[in-house]
Write a structure and sequence with these properties.
The protein has a single domain (about 25-35, about 55-255), classed as Rossmann fold, CATH 3.40.50. Helices cover about 40% and strands about 10% of the residues. It is built from 9 helices and 6 strands; from the N terminus they run ααβαβαβαβαααββα. Strands 2-1-3-4-5-6 form a 6-stranded parallel beta sheet, sandwiched between helices. Strand 1 (about 60-65), helix 3 and strand 2 (about 85-90) form a beta-alpha-beta unit. Helix 4 (about 100-115) crosses helix 5 (about 130-140). It starts with 8 loop residues before the first helix and ends in a 9-residue tail after the last helix.
């Protein structure tokens, strides 16, 4: 499925091979860093519009990316609620813990959202949040209406730039020194990583829509690692760090969710 940019999956080439040690072009890195200032104003506290969920819209669970929290997806959440979607936060702040433990937490949120609404829930996950969202979907497809990932390298979670790789090393080092609640070495190369790899390699049921939104202007994640063979790729022009607040991305997500019909649990 070509994205807004109009490139087909065939034009994107083989989604799997990508160089070890992602090094984005200098201009891509500059644009990435400047994009933070462009969207910062949209994250400032302001009066939220009171909305009423539309029974013809699917409920949505939103999961933030690495080093982030639910606040980073506030602009997207607000727009989805304006369109009539009931939304749920992930409760993750910040997203720096053990992958397996955070996946358990997202699954519990998914269960709570499904129980509260009586319907299957669409999951939107940004960056590492998309990895957690796919794991929850693989484990509980009976509760999921749709999976949408934003800049998520599910074919290789470590296909990241040098800055993020260094941040990972600092966090795992702190974990080894006994700081609780942090991602550890086991999550990168041990038993936890192997289990996560198994979940990410698993197939999503064919009747469950799975879309991977990516950008070749991504300066944090190698965009080729976002092209999960089981997902429909949709290309956008956003940077990695702006995806949660970028109007184009929000419009894409809103359009995908708006095309879904609510599904009662057990169907």
């Amino acid at each position: 499925m070509p994205g807004p940019v109009g490139r087909s999956p065939e034009e994107l080439g083989d989604p799997l091979p990508h160089p070890v040690g992602f090094r984005p072009p200098v201009l891509t890195t500059v644009r990435e860093n400047l994009s933070v200032f462009r969207v910062a104003g949209r994250l400032l506290p302001h009066q939220r519009q009171v909305t009423t969920p539309d029974p013809d819209r699917v409920p949505v669970l939103l999961v933030p990316g690495f080093l982030s929290g639910d606040f980073a997806l506030a602009p997207m959440t607000e727009e989805l609620r304006r369109r009539g979607h009931w939304t749920s936060r992930s409760g993750i702040a910040p997203n720096i813990g053990c992958t397996r433990e955070l996946a358990d937490a997202v699954e519990r949120r998914l269960e709570q959202a499904a129980e509260r609404t009586g319907r299957r829930v669409a999951i939107v996950g940004w960056s590492r949040g998309g990895t957690l969202a796919k794991i929850a979907t693989v484990r509980r497809p009976d509760l999921v209406a749709s999976l949408i990932t934003l800049g998520t390298p599910n074919t290789d979670p470590l296909a990241v730039n040098a800055t993020l790789a260094a941040q990972l090393q600092v966090i795992t080092r702190l974990s080894s020194l006994g700081v609780p609640g942090l991602l550890g070495d086991d999550c990168l190369s041990g038993e936890c990583a192997q289990e996560v790899r198994g979940w990410l390699d698993a197939d999503i049921p064919g009747d469950l829509p799975y879309t991977s939104v990516f950008s070749i202007d991504d300066g944090v994640v190698d965009w080729r690692a976002c092209l999960d063979p089981g997902a429909d790729p949709v290309e956008v022009r956003a940077t990695h760090m702006s995806m949660g607040a970028d109007p184009e991305v929000i419009e894409v997500v809103g359009g995908l969710l708006g095309s879904l019909e609510p599904q009662p649990l057990g169907v």
